[in-house]
Amino acid sequence: MRTVKLVIVVILNSLTLLLAAQDLNPDNLEYIEKYKNLAIQEMYKYGIPASITLAQGILESGSGKSELARTANNHFGIKCHKDWTGPTFHQDDDAVNECFRKYNDPVKSFEDHSIFLATRSRYSKLFKLKITDYKGWAYGLKKAGYATDPNYPKRLIKIIKDYHLHQYDKLSNKTAYKKPRHSTTRRSVRRRRKSVREGADFDDISLDNAGLHRIEKNNGIKFVTAKPGDTYRSIAREFNVYTYQLAKYNDAKKDKKLHPGEIVYLQHKKNKGSKKYHVANGKESLYDISQEYGVKLKKLMKYNDAGAKTILPKGRRVYLRKKPKTRR
Known about the structure:
Layout: H1 2-22, H2 26-46, H3 50-61, H4 67-72, E1 88-91, E2 98-101, H5 106-118, H6 134-143, H7 152-162, H8 166-169, H9 186-197, E3 216-218, E4 221-225, H10 232-238, H11 243-249, E5 263-265, E6 277-279, H12 286-293, H13 297-304, E7 317-319
Antiparallel strand pairs: 1-2, 3-4, 4-5, 6-7
């Protein structure tokens, strides 16, 4: 009897969730699925709750359907202000023909949104809140003058609750997450962005359940494993490095097609391997071995006097460091 009651409760709960899901806006669901990883990435870099970023994006851009979002890739309604030197887009808002920032990609809009909040003193108190305090952030944004709508905080909170966006903030509780200790001045943000681009500031984060790539190490070098649909450009965006630089780390051209399971290094490979040599299996090139062991391709070519793409005969010793000197 108890089992039957339990089954009935489960079925009723499932039906409740199903009915509730039917009331959700499909455009919002699509927007969340498309940009949740980017919002989480920004949370890890700047300490802004992913739920707030997503809710603001949905509200400000009409889930990416507004004219400002479609024409200018501006998802957060950020206006030009005096310090903006990039492209612009004009439309009526609080006043006639107001100036808004224009981006060549939505990713840049998300990044600029983070920098906008992180570099303005009036938002500094928000960064002292717990990363999971989305309500504090919602009311704090209104108090700091982000929006003129008196119901702005309630609208953000409703979106976060309806779509359970606060689940993404809980990822910050992982040991991998460290609340940014750096100053939020423009100079410090530029310095931090530069250090990340140079591959010097990656944290060992694990976000598989969030859809992001897990950072691992090989020969002391950080790398991720390519997933279906990945390109050097998409991975470069995720980790805030230049595409050409990521390709250079991997001794490849930036338009090279990536295959699922392929190693993509986030830093320069080493001059030598962790062991002396590798025995070729008859199907590998020096490039393949370079990626497998995290050794620079030019070094392997020098150590083994062979071309990068030449398939090496089975059983051949491929030296991963300088050949030992032969005794006479």
